[in-house]
Amino acid sequence: MTDSENKPVPVPPPSRTSLPSTTTKKEYDFFGVIQDYLDEAAAAANLELFVRTILSQPKNEIIVNFPVRMDNGEVKLFKGYRVQHNNLLGPFKGGIRFHPDVSLDDVKALAAMMTWKSALMRLPFGGGKGGIKFDPHSVTPHELQKITRRFTHALGMNIGPDYDIPAPDVGTNGQTMAWMMDTYSNMIGSYQKQSVKGVVTGKPVASGGTLGRAKATAQGMVFCLIEWAKEHNFQLEGKTMTVQGFGNVGSHTAVILARLGVSTIAVGDHTGYLFNPEGFNAHKLQDYVQHHGSIAGYPGGKPISREEFFATKADIFAPSALENQIKEAEARQLQCTVIVEGANGPTNPAGEKILEERGITILPDVLANSGGVTVSYYEWVQNKRSESWTEEEVDEKLERAMERAYREVSDYARNKKVSLRIAAYAIALSRIEAVYKEREIFP
């Protein structure tokens, strides 16, 4: 990436939304948790057994080991994953995660969630997820580019604009997608080079991305929260919020809600937690994190412990980091009215049960953070049509989509007397079931 004078400019660091987990991967079976939700929702929706059976495992599980020569001349071997859960409704769709804790089972869980999100939001997509097991902040920008390109090359024709479409996730960003797109375009025939921009979404706007994509997940969360607030006479102006994970999702959520009069009083990321009873300047903190990679050292807040963060009294909590952050202890400490899940799977089942008993509403991930895949769909459509929509057009379409999805989930939960999470799953499963019944099983 060069400026007009052909001088190198710094590559922006990937989103840093990760947090240290207090449990090891072996102690928490994320895929098992998603399977349990699937069982519960299947019962609520009276799902045909054969559909439940098909959806219980991904269609494809791809593992690649690929070498990269590092800047010091050493050759390192990296392990990458791409799980393709289901493509009944359309191409596999889902993010690429760069993180030291990436594992096959976690990617399987995340891929399944993408299937439910796409179905819930009525998108012509299936579900997929991928990642590389490494810390992207431990390598140079040059090494990061080589790792990304070698991974893309290793995946080969397992991705494609009409087959499997990656997007950013934890540890990746628009620059990552630009590298992936460029690598893929150079792997196919020259006559196709300009027609494959849709192989990834979440690209920089100049490289075929869409306006509004960077904030899409957060914008969708806010639209979902607004609908819940309308339904429960909850006035957003003057309310307070805490945010765990201040990368792309968490920071944009704070910025957007600040415009609606919501003050962020506590934030946290992998480096620790900060508190400011007067409220942080969300824009300034977002800029600081983009330049420094974390909230560490930000002068506008007082350092507090993880326990103090979860015990901070606020109206809204937006967990926007990794899965399994709200366990039993955290669920008892939280003093809020509503949780809007920006991360995937931030609340574990034991914690969720306690929150339900305490009357704290959870706007579940599969609904609340589905703005990201929805706007990815808008980007994909623009690439296919060679169009460029305004940010206002994108936001208007997203607002209507989130309003409709929230209303459907809320009505289902009330009528069936299930949680919003199970309602969202059940609606998604019913839509997939309808297609399986119509198309039946080949051969």
From TrEMBL:
CDD domains: NAD_bind_1_Glu_DH (cd01076). Keywords: Oxidoreductase. Residues 210-440 form the Glutamate/phenylalanine/leucine/valine/L-tryptophan dehydrogenase C-terminal domain. Belongs to the Glu/Leu/Phe/Val dehydrogenases family. This is Glutamate dehydrogenase. It holds the Pfam family ELFV_dehydrog. Residues 1-22 are annotated as: Disordered. InterPro entries: Aminoacid_DH-like_N_sf, Glu/Leu/Phe/Val/Trp_DH, Glu/Leu/Phe/Val/Trp_DH_C, Glu/Leu/Phe/Val/Trp_DH_dimer, Glu/Leu/Phe/Val_DH_AS, Glu_DH, NAD(P)-bd_dom_sf, NAD_bind_Glu_DH. The keyword Oxidoreductase applies. It comes from Pendulispora brunnea.
